[in-house]
Amino acid sequence: MKLNHQKEPVGINVQPAIFSWNPLYGNTISLFEGDKKVFSKSDVDPYGYKCEYALKPRTRYRWTVNEHSSYFVTGKVDEAWSADWIYSSLPKEKQVIFVKDISVRKKVKEAFLHIHAKGVYEIYLNGKKVGEEVLMPGYHSYQLMQEVQTYLLDLEEENTLEIWMGDGWYKGRFVFDGGESDIYTDCLGLICEIHLEYEDGEKDCLNSDASWQVKESTIVSSSIYDGEVLDETKFCLERYPVVVKEESKEKLVDRYNPVLKKQECLEVKEVIYTPAKEIVLDFGQNMSGWVEFKNFLPEGIQITLQYGEVLQNGCFYRENLRTAKAEFVYTSDGKDKVVRPHFTYYGFRYVKISGVDSIEKENFKAYLISSSMEQIGYIETSNWKVNQLFHNALWSQKDNFLDIPTDCPQRDERMGWTGDAGIISRTATENFDCSAFFHHYLKNIEKEQFIRNGSIPNFVPAPPVKEPEKINPFLVYMDYGISIWGDAGCLIPWHLYLASGDKALLTEEYPIMKAWVEYIRIQDEKEGNRGLWTQGGHLGDWLALDTDDPQSPFGATDLGYSASLFYYYSTHLLSLAAKEIGREEDFVAYSNHKEKIKNAILSHYFDSFGALTIQPTQTACVLALYFKVHNEQSYPYLVRTLVELIEKKNNHLDTGFAGSPFICAVLSENGYNELAYTLFLQEDFPSWLFAVNLGATTIWERWNSLLEDGSISGTGMNSLNHYAYGSIVDWMYRYMMGLQPMEPGYKVVKIEPQPDTRLDWAKMEYKSASGLYKIAWEKEDEGYSYDISIPEGCRAIVFGKEYESGEYKIKNGA
């Protein structure tokens, strides 16, 4: 039972409020304030019901579906703000603590805190941290929307409320190639309201205003890229007045993002004493987060933790982090405590310890910091390397789903590249329930898109840097949407709908899809209204290996061709979405328009015999086949040419970001399942298992991020934790294990596994919106046996035969 795809949320945005639950629970929903039923509705869609009841601010609601029950707590909703924006009066480079002493004159029933801060913050009440979350308010398009968090406070008679703040994304250095500081603000500040309800029913509100004070923090400096310096020998007692400013509050909205917190804890796997006489902790897993340790240092002693992904020649290494310092410098006060950073995070497997001669590994623990998502997909096979690849894909998703989908968690980037997010979105929704996570991202896309007339930037949020030309060309041209990257605006909403079956959510996100396609259509009109998109700064099949220049990130597939194909595919998805939500006029218009695009592609890029008139590449064939942009002449040519190009590479792929997600699916779909497995199971470069053989615990950015001897291939753009190539896992779910949704939400599915003799067995569980599917297959002396479990209320077409819910054992697909 979820509200806006979050379980028992506090303070999330409920405009609108979309309820969803297990369809077996029934289709009557009731809403209660205390014991009073305030709303009830029957015959509603359990996959996504948009509630028309006007929810009140700061209210605990219980909701039921028959005997099943859940709850949520609202935030500000649409209530006006009475508080002031307050800012630090200390030098702007200082990390600060905002302070408010609160005396409570009578017994409090409930106390709510609503807050948005310009910087990252943590809340402490009477010395204790409030809530589990870290790095709040998270990262979003601050200049367009300011997300407000809501907390429940447990007040005593006399209280000291402290808001610790660091620079974060708001003020700290951000954006690649050195970046800029003070992008969103040049001074740390906040706005907050504390609403009190007393036992006698009286209410009160304490606002951020001139009565607040500010003091210097023991955190000397903090930065998303560079880390944190914490000096606990500093005494920061003196308080100073705050600066009150009259500023707009119109951008303040209740939060969309799911909870961001420490999710998992890892122990030190090994302490390494390197040839360079370094002490290095190996946690055995590349991850995003930080390390905490029990303070074992006398007062005044300083220790430095430096973070890296890989060792080189047995020694600590972090040159691929570029300008990011990625360190934690701590000066001890000698007290017994657990020490940690507050306002940064790192991408790492290895941590170098400096400033001490020896350590006890039991004192150190690593924590994964990630947005809260429930894992719903599980795959295991007889091949440990395939299992490791699946593990790597899961971890790269967890590591990079940190409030927004980032490209990497370690170097001086960590930005929300839209192309990466769109490419991974189907796999992502099969691995985890990430509807709330992606909806938050899409709200940012919607805001950025609105000010760009439908265009979607290459990364979202798109930081409003002051001098983009001095940083990177990507920033100069970020207002001009490009194919594949901008197509995230159609790919993500559709993939969320396939997974969730939530039409209400699709309806909310439909305007993003339509605005993107209309943006491309306008570009098409500027080019003569041909049904093609051949102009613009497209990146195409990024990091493909099919050119003569191994250093070039651009693939050989014609940029206009790939852009036009994605133009077709986004229009196709838009037409499907229009049909699903009842936009009949749009459905007809965009169905016709996609046919125009298809015909234009076939006319412009294929000759009369069906052959490509541009350089044939693996990706060129894959995209046309996957998107079904072909005819009777071109279809056999595309299949034959793809197979020939793979065979010319000694049965290896050379695809990049655009082709790799689909290549195995295209082969399995078109009679070449054995070749799909050959690509999938290759172990030398380039292949998915090449990284596994070199000890990877996450997905790499490049096929050769490390060379065969374990040395790093380059430092300019080389992350060892980059989820895009993890999109192969979609093929594992849909072809290796054979689970294909025939209806969004998986109420009706096709189950048709395509095994291969090189694996002895494989098994999968998928916790769909409709229930738990289980599929397993095993090689036998004569063929295969299949164990299939279909959840209650669902049905499946298994090898062409219809089955109702239940458990079945099937031999050889019969």
Summarize, please.
By secondary structure, the protein is an alpha+beta fold. Helices cover 23% and strands 30% of the residues.
In whole angstroms, the N-to-C terminal distance is 37 Å
Give the % helix.
10-25%
The DSSP helix count reads: 15
User: How is the main sheet built?
Assistant: 10 strands, mixed
How many E-type strands? Answer: 43
Average pLDDT value?
A: 96
Beta-strand proportion = 25-35%
Q: Determine the structural class based on helices, strands and strand pairing.
A: alpha+beta
The quaternary organization reads as single chain
Write the layout of secondary structure elements.
Elements: E1 2-3, E2 17-20, E3 29-33, E4 36-41, E5 49-51, E6 60-65, E7 68-73, E8 85-87, E9 96-103, E10 108-118, E11 120-125, E12 128-129, E13 146-152, E14 158-166, H1 168-171, E15 189-198, E16 203-207, E17 213-216, E18 219-223, E19 227-231, E20 240-241, E21 243-245, E22 252-254, E23 260-267, E24 270-273, E25 279-294, E26 302-308, E27 310-312, E28 315-317, E29 327-331, E30 338-339, E31 346-354, E32 364-371, E33 374-375, E34 377-381, H2 384-400, E35 401-402, E36 404-405, H3 418-431, E37 432-433, H4 435-450, H5 473-476, H6 488-500, H7 503-526, H8 559-580, H9 584-605, H10 618-626, H11 634-648, H12 663-669, H13 673-681, H14 688-693, H15 728-736, E38 739-741, E39 748-751, E40 761-768, E41 771-780, E42 783-798, E43 801-811
Parallel strand pairs: 13-22, 19-29, 39-42
Antiparallel strand pairs: 1-2, 2-5, 3-4, 3-6, 6-7, 8-15, 8-21, 9-14, 9-17, 10-13, 10-15, 11-12, 11-14, 15-16, 17-20, 18-19, 23-32, 24-25, 25-30, 25-31, 25-32, 26-29, 26-31, 27-28, 33-37, 34-40, 35-36, 38-39, 40-41, 41-42, 42-43
Helix pairs in contact: 3-6, 3-15, 4-6, 4-7, 6-7, 6-8, 7-8, 8-9, 10-11, 12-13, 12-15
